[in-house]
Amino acid sequence: MTTEHIEAFNSKIIEEAPDKIETCIGDVDVRFVLRDSFFDQDSLLEYDVELPNEEHVLQIQYWYSVNNPNHHRIEVRTPNLRAYQITCFHCNTVGLLEPERIVEIEQIVKVSGQSSRDGLDVRQTNERIKEEACLFLDQEGLLVEPNNRAARWRIGTYDSQTRAWLYGQTTAGFIKNFLKVALIMAYCRGNRGINLYPNAEDPSQSVDDEDTLTSISAEAFKEKREKWEVTGLKGEEFVVEIERRRLIEVGRVDLADAVRHVSLFDCGAGYDILSYELDGRSRFIECKTSAGSSMKFEITSNEWNKAKKYREQYYLYRITNIDQEDHRDIVIIQDPFGKFEDGELTLTPSAFTLSII
Q: InterPro entries this protein is in (predicted)?
């Protein structure tokens, strides 16, 4: 048995690891900074983790058993805790050892070895921790629940033959997802010294330039706002149809049936539609719709924060000419926050928040 494909995978993440990753878990800002020097020479990567009220170090390591040729795993650890493995995925189970052509990087959400607490026995404690972890993972778009199979976190899909990520993902996205899973699992277990919420309770429409007005009566503004809302709803319904058709055409009827028009029941989500990648990971879609053809539009701070949080799983769908069914255009922007950082998009402030001190 050869470990060639595992070694190629490890080399890829080392060579393409970003120096810095900014994201969120819930409403908590998280920053990962690649360390220049490692605590452990066996680490593939080590990142300083900056949370609002504390700092930690997370290590990504490759481990194998000399007594079991099938037992290879890639795990996240902390260097300063006795029980320091937080989470891992097994190379043989995901198909990276043999290898399979398409490798789903995932792991069953499971908790064991915890002490009883809050009047619960060990089994009940483990189940409660697992349920809480699943809620967090689902919130971050990292939970998949295949038919008749246990809930799993999934952090990417990899082609072992071409040694490339699929569905628009990157190595930076994989590392971000892996470290987020580790923080969530460590926090939910409660014995890894990581507290995401030390001082608070846990968290368990667009316009073209030509429509921008500086003076307008209340009646006219109400009429204009209603028009924008109708236009926005048309665009969202159009995208729901597109997404369901996209998934049906590739045989994922199960995912097509699960597409949700989120803005109809949650106006504060920061995205309008919840769809899916072909591997079951969530695709968060914010629709920006107009009757004209301008490529300029507004984005709220909430939407922008969600773009920063979800990165490659967050999409802007710009729909123009919505009232002309035969001439509708759509531009899809994946990871707008990343494209802004790379200089491919510009962002201009159009409103400010003033605080009285």
A: NOV_C (IPR024975)
Q: Give the count of alpha carbons within 13 A of 35, CB side only.
A: 19
* Residue 201 within any structural domain of the chain: no
Spatial distance between the Cα atoms of 35 and 45, rounded to a whole number of angstroms: 8
Query: Is there a domain that residue 167 lies in?
Result: yes
Q: Show the domain range for 295.
A: 209-341
**CA geometry: angle 271, 338, 57, nearest 5 deg:** 100
pLDDT, tens digit, for every residue of 141-169? Answer: 999 987 667 899 999 999 999 999 999 89
Q: Based on the domain organization, do 128 and 267 belong to the same domain?
A: no
Examine residue 202 and state whether it is found in any structural domain, yes or no.
no
C-alpha gyration radius of the chain: 22
Residue 354 lies in a domain: no
45 with 60: CB under 8 angstroms? yes
* 50 and 149 within one domain: yes
State residue 208 phi and psi, 5-degree precision: -85, 165
Say if residue 87 is in the same domain as residue 235.
Answer: no
> Cα–Cα distance between 255 and 244 in angstroms, integer?
8
Residues 276-322: pLDDT tens digits? 999 999 999 999 998 877 788 888 888 999 999 999 999 999 998 88
Together in a domain, 309 and 249? yes
Q: What is the DSSP string of 105-153?
A: EEEE----SPPP-TT--HHHHHHHHHHHHHHHHHHTT-EE--TTS--EE
Beta pairing, strands 329-334 & 314-320: antiparallel
